[in-house]
Specification:
With 276 residues, the protein is an all-alpha fold. The chain contains 11 helices and 2 strands; from the N terminus they run ααααβααααβααα. The protein has a two-stranded antiparallel ribbon. Helix 9 packs across helix 10.
Amino acid sequence: MILTLFADVLIYMFLAFGLWFLLKVLKYPDLSIEQIFVLGGVVFGISSNADNHFTVTLSIVFVIALILSIICSFLRFKIKLNPIIISLIMTYVYYSTSLYLMGKSGISIKNISDNNEFNYMMYSIILLITYSFFLFFLFKSKFGLRIISIGSNEILANRLSISPFKYGTAGLFFAYFIILMGGVLYAYRIKNADISYGGGFLLMSLFIVLLTNIISKRINVFKILFAILLVSLLYSLLLQIIITINFPSELTRGFYAISLLVLVIAMPRDKMKLFS
């Protein structure tokens, strides 16, 4: 049970880390993260079934994250579309792409060892720590500060000749890559890719990010990593309790929504400033 709980926590951390980056750093509310997550799993499933090495899958995910970030940044900063509109459109694009790639709603994944649960946790921990160190040094650099400036004050960034499209693309890439990798590792863990397994993850991630924002309001990568870990663990324990008392599985997404609503109502207004 403890291993299962920890494995669930790692999944929430990938999604929450990506959503935190989108909301807190880029001020980019993206509703499509569930389908980005699913797309990562689909790509891994197809690549693994084709007997490709994991590094090939990693390269494909890297390219996909880059393409998605360029498209969304172009729509946001060149076409000037609202991020909510972009994410709604892209949700259907990702969903259709995943269905087209699989040819059906789900596929089983071959060529995965029996100790995949342990490997999954090791890969996840290594990736999360590496990503955290990368962001730590990124935010200390001029390049990273320019990415932050796009979310903080786009007009001022333009006046300082900081390209919103260029640095917005870079910021979206960092967020989308970690979410896609979360989908990859989740598919590795459960040995299948399915169009429906992202259901509810957006609400769970938003719940975690809102609580994390209370614990650490400043952009401090390691404090954020610890806060996300702590909140994800507490949320996972809550879900385990729900499962233990035989809560109807058909109502779980409703539970996610209600728990998020209760949190939003209970939080002081000054703590709700995710975009500040």
